[in-house]
Structure prediction request, 276 residues.
Amino acid sequence: MTEIFTVMKWPLIACLLLPGMLVYLGLHIVRREVIFVDLALAQVASLGACVSLLLGHEAGDPQTYLWSVGFTLIGAAIFAVTRMRNHARVPQEALIGITYVVAAAAGILLLSRTAEGNEELRRTLIGDVLLVSPKQVLKTFGIYLVIGAVHFVFRKKFMMISFEPQRAEAEGMAVRWWDFLFYALFGLVVTSFVQIGGVLLVFSYLIVPAVCANLLARRVAALLALGWGIATASGVAGLYAAYRFDLPTGAAIICVLGAALLLCGFAAVCSKKKAA
Prediction:
């Protein structure tokens, strides 16, 4: 037991402290019905990192993080401007998918010009939670606290544009501006966690707990509680499975989250049968 805690101490702390913000934002993303926006923004952030690597910076350099943030803000502006425009002819999800594919292809092209391109591409996709450092965890948690404070102060605005967008427009809110702020903050969250867990784990933490919660509850407080509980339990179980069976950590957590979704779906079906 002492050995596993020594090896998994900071990965465990990361899985306890960081997914909470991802779950909260995931509820917004599911309600907005732009499920793949996190993948797109994560890939855009990775493209910024690829540019930085091509310019000679290291993956952990501050310049690389700033390049990622800069590209993320560009992506946030694109998604804010395109939301609810041309809805019947060109769904925003199509534009999000195009952004993801183009950013991924551009990243592959850039990394092909670097000496460690394949390794960087693998790290971007699946990350390596097992090698997370105390500095990474604490820095990311600090960023999440600041972003969480902004969301708390403007919670009514953010909730309205995600859960009641028509009402927000009817009341004269500057929806484009609030959308940009939402996506910019969302992009910072994604950019920070991609460096720890990779694109696939970010997507899983954002979407799976939120979907599980929506299957079982309706009130926002219940959604948050269920989502946080599922994310925490899945993270701990995934870390244990990775240690016990010598598995890739991120992939193990993702598979446990997938199993949790199946269990929640089964529980939701049973609940509906009982109600009927």
The first helix runs from residue 2 to 17. The chain has a mean pLDDT of 86. Residues 111 and 117 are 4 Å apart (CA to CA). The radius of gyration is 19 Å.
